[in-house]
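Progress note, sequence design subtask.
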């Protein structure tokens, strides 16, 4: 079974918690961690910018990634939300099996 991690930024805690709840309720991830405050520096519309954001990191099965991305885009306030994923290469076998059991 292939598993992935994801990294998503949100504009504030309310939006991050809303997204986390939707992801979990739809069983698109086994777990979502919300980091309450990060500072993001980026280019947007030709200008250097920086903003306070909230970070979501989670664990899912790789076949769920497309549905996860679609769901986040449907529920996110940003025009182009940061949603990136990468495959897990290893870890605690019991934890990896738990991810499989908790996602549909």
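Output:
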């Amino acid at each position: 079974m292939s598993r992935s991690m994801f990294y998503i930024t949100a504009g504030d805690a309310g939006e991050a918690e809303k997204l986390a709840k939707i992801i979990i309720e739809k069983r698109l991830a086994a777990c979502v961690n919300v980091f309450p405050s990060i500072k993001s520096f980026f280019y947007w519309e030709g200008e250097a910018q920086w903003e306070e954001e909230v970070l979501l990191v989670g664990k899912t099965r790789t076949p769920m990634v497309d549905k996860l991305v679609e769901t986040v885009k449907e529920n996110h306030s940003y025009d182009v939300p940061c949603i990136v994923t990468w495959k897990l290469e290893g870890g605690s076998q019991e934890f990896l099996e738990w991810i499989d059991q908790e996602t549909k």
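The chain has a mean pLDDT of 96. Work on this subtask will continue into the next period as scheduled.
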